[in-house]
Amino acid sequence: MTQPPPDADARRAAPPVLVYPDGSLSPPPMGLYARAAATAQPVSEVIVPPRDAAAIEVPAGSILRLSCPEGSQVGDLNLFARGDLSERFFSGKTRALHGTHVSTGDRLWSCFPYLRPTATIIADSLDWYGIDADGASVHDVIGTRCDPYTHHLLSGEDYDRCCHSNLTRALAAHAGLSLAEAERHVHDVLNVFMCTGFTRDTGRYFMKASPVRAGDHLDLFAEIDLLAVMSACPGGDCGAGHSSDHAACYPLSMTVLQPEQGVLNGWESPPRNGYAGGHGA
Q1: Dihedral over Cα of 167, 192, 93, 204: its sign
Q2: In sequence order, what are the residues at sequence separation of 6 or more whose Cβ sits closer than 8 angstroms to the Cβ of residue 63?
Q3: Which residue among 29, 103, 217, 275 is least crowded, i.e. fewest CB within 10 A of its CB?
Q4: Is 131 helix (H, G, I), strand (E, B) or coil?
């Protein structure tokens, strides 16, 4: 290791500055969303089989409930603007704006050049978990998704039930694309129910058994027309490992709930980002 300079302690003591301070973003209308949720009724549902993925369309102004109906299970979620796969969930900017893990009141942002809320988290039955003694929390936007390429890199084996492959198959089937076409659109995920953090000594990404239990759910208010694709991770609760057939795995569900007509009067989907796009040219 390089010998530290004489002022190393002073350099380390520089105060942290929040890149996006609290109050930088306009708050979502949580009261309106709560009233909408109170009247909402289920209109469609898909079951995500263990070690597989499924897709569902979610109209703007409705609620997408992601649920764990049976045993402890985590999911990897992709979000797209319905009808335009080029607008998709941007986990990196969501992380920068809200933090490494998201919960009630946080928004899931889309990629450039759109950069607008795709969905707002309006209910989280695991919000009690907080940040534990290991520095872990749930619903992370730091993990990329388990994938067959890293699996092959580390083990030399091919495994086709990784979340990346699951999402690719489900998107291809729903959108009528080839696997190669669909794969180009699969992106970094919201790790639903997954419990993760970074080690304090080496800063390495870790996971631990999810606290999710049957009946837990995460509710997203759809800010725009969405296509949601979710994989039930082959790691089950991710308490031991992932990308294998060894863990106990269970289904997940995605349910669209439609609020009562009129309760959202005056609400509109957010427009795409207002930047003019000159880029200094």
Answers
A1: negative
A2: 36, 37, 40, 122, 219, 220, 221, 222, 256, 257, 258, 259
A3: 275
A4: coil
- Nearest CA to 231 out of 249, 216, 213, 252 is that of 252
pLDDT reading at 120 higher than 80: yes
DSSP helix/strand/coil, 20: coil
* DSSP string computed for 135-156: S-EEEESS-----HHHHHHHHS
Q: Which residue in the block uniquely carries the two structure tokens 């790790």?
A: 191
CB distance 116 to 224 below 8 Å: yes
* Contact (Cβ atoms closer than 8 angstroms) between residue 108 and residue 64: no
Q: What residues pair up with 150 in beta bridges, in sequence order?
A: none
Q: What is the number of other CB atoms lying within 10 angstroms of the CB of residue 273?
A: 13
In terms of Cβ atoms closer than 10 Å to its own Cβ (0-12, 13-18, 19+), residue 81 is buried
CA atoms of 247 and 79, how far apart (whole Å): 26
51-87 pLDDT per residue, tens? 999 999 999 999 999 999 999 999 999 999 999 999 9
Distance CA 110, CA 118 (A): 6
Best CA proximity match to 262, nearest among 14, 52, 36? 36
Q: What angle do CA 38, 28, 171 make, to 5 degrees?
A: 80
Residues 236/52/109/70 CA torsion (nearest 10 deg): -50
Hey, which residues does 107 pair with through a beta bridge?
120
- What is the pTM for the complete model shown? 0.97
Alpha carbon of residue 142 to chain centroid: 9
CB neighbour class for 25 (10 Å; exposed up to 12, middle 13-18, buried from 19):
middle
First-to-last CA distance in the chain? 43
Ordered strands of the 117-124 beta sheet: 41-48, 252-258, 63-67, 217-222, 117-124, 107-109
